[in-house]
Each structure stands twice: as C-alpha cells, then as structure tokens.
Amino acid sequence: xxxxxxxxxxxxxxxxxxxxRLDNNEAFMSLLSSVDFSKLQDTLINRYPAExxxxxxxxxxxxxxxxxxxILPGNGSDEWISLICQYAxxxxxxxxxxxxxxxxxxxxxxxxxxxxTKISLNDDFSLPLEMVKAEISNKNPKLMFLSNPxxxxxxxxxxxxxxxxxxxxxxxxxxxVLDEAYMDFAGESPFAGKILDYENLIILRxxxxxLGMAALRLGFLIANDRIIEGISCIKPPYNVNTVSxxxxxxxxxxxxxxxxxxxxxxxxxAELEEIVEEFVGRVDGAVLxxxxxxxxxxxxxxxxxxxxxxxxxxxKIRLFTDETLQAVRISAGTKEEHEKLREALLEWSExxxxxx
Length: 356
Description:
Blueprint: E1 20-21, H1 54-64, E2 71-74, H2 76-88, E3 94-99, H3 103-111, E4 115-120, H4 129-139, E5 143-147, H5 159-172, E6 175-179, H6 183-186, E7 201-206, E8 219-222, H7 225-232, H8 242-252, H9 255-282, E9 287-288, E10 295-299, H10 303-312, E11 315-316, E12 318-322, E13 325-331, H11 335-355
Parallel strand pairs: 1-11, 3-4, 3-5, 5-6, 6-7
Antiparallel strand pairs: 2-8, 7-8, 9-10, 10-13, 12-13
Helix pairs in contact: 1-8, 2-3, 4-5, 9-11
C-alpha cells in the first residue's frame, strides 16, 4: 500500500435490515413492484452490457432535463468522484472541499496524491463565498467539490453563488464538480438547460435518493463535450450492468410514477420536519437547520447519547462527532417509522431534561 494512503480509513457500512433505517438518506419504499420483469426474460446475462446504455441515458436525460449526448452513466456517484480525480489530478495538485461536506470528495483526491484544503461553512452553514473565492485565488485548485444541496447540512446554495464559484475557478483553470444528489427534493437544477455554457463544470446526479434506486447503483456525470470525451477515455467500458440499466430506464420512463413518488416523499419530509421541530423545542441548546433534502440535521450536546438511545430501540440515525460538527442527521421514513421515532425522541428528551 502506498505510504500516502496508509492513514485512510475504510468507508464501512454495516448491514442492519432489522432496524428502522433513518441514517442513509435512502427512499423509504421500493418501486420494484412497478417493474415489468417480463422484459428482463430476454436479457443476455452471458454477454457484456452495451457500452453506451443508450436507453438509460435517454430516459434520465428526459427526466432530469439534460442533453443525452452530454451524460455518462456510471456505477453510482462514488465511481464518478474517483474517475474525475483520475481524470484531473496529478500528485501535489490542489483540491478544495467544503467542511462539512461528503467525505468521499476528500478521499478521492487524497488517493491521487492531491493536497486538500477544507473551507469551513459559515455558522449557519451558508456558503462563505468570499472565503471560497479567496482560497481559489490563493491555492489555484485543479478541482473543487461541492454538494448542492449540501450533505450533511441540507443547505441549498443559490444559483448566483455557484456561478461566482464557477467563474472564479475558470480564471484559475480549475473545475467545479457540483454534486446534485439531492436536487430532486429542492426542484429543477438551475444548470439543466445550460450545461454547455460552462467550460469547467461537471454535474453529478444519482438515482439513489429521490428516485429510490440505491441498490441499482446508478450515477450520472453531465458535462460539456470536451470533458465527456476526456473522461470517456479513462472510464471502464462496462461500468453499468445490464439489469440495473434496464430497470433504471424503465422506471425513469414512467414520469407520472416518479412524480407521485416524489410527492409522497415530500409529504413524509414535511411530517419529519414537524417531529424534529417538536423535539428540538424540548431540548435546551438544540438547533435544527433548514433543509432542501430528505433529511434534517440537528446540532445538540447529547448527539452521541441520543444516537445510542435510538439504536437500542432499533432506530438508526447518522451521528457526526468531528471537530466541526456535533450533530445527528435523520432521514425521512414511513408514517409508522415516524411514529416510533416520535415516541423515542419524546422519551429521550424527558430523560435528558431530568439530567440537566
């Protein structure tokens, strides 16, 4: 193992299907019953998948509003993060990430031997635009990664803010990687109709969140012709399996189904908001942050104690305990899951109040 990699930790995921899973920002139900499996009967699983996955790309392009010729399908967004780093970075290159943000951005850059600078978000988790532009000027980064809406804060940055970052990077010859994994919850991407207007913008989208297809591992890279051609030179030729591509294409072709599914999720997100607002109102010092996603972030002193308490009651949420973030993140679930969450949060808050 290269010395530069020996300090990295594996991204471990423990399968716990006997739990109420409110930790991974997944959709809370499956659309598999809407798939016509008779169409899969003729699938040649003894043959390599079609390299272009044309039907999948066409269906996603229509759904998301991006030109199909500027879309590459991949094995989840994680693969694209890795390939972008391979495409752009030499050892010693500078990369900017926000703090907090998705941890795989930093890991992908470090694997390539790049130097990563973290830019702390403002106290309210808004984008420190002037600081970002100053770091771009000082560091001359090759890449900057940024999720919008942000994971784990739920913050949605403005289109003008993002465009200022794009322009600042372009002046230095850098690329912005804009991860829109949760954009379906916030609305239409402001860059959907003008991806070709930018020389240095890569957009990442996924089927794992609002579209409810996390198990299929479908991620999409959208960029201008030059970047698409360059990354096509290094990506594996068969990185999307045939079954995932066929199921994904079929579901994405059912726009009415996906629209109804999104509305159902938005209803559950609103219900979760009521639950966590009620909870935060009972806990001294707790802060609930606004969200444009399917999860809510709560900062509180007893974050680990709350996480352990819920885990004992078969409810799993996400805990953050690093230097910049002492908080929990809770994803939307079903009505039944929300009711159990509400009861457990009430019980914990009553115990917490007695201890202070």
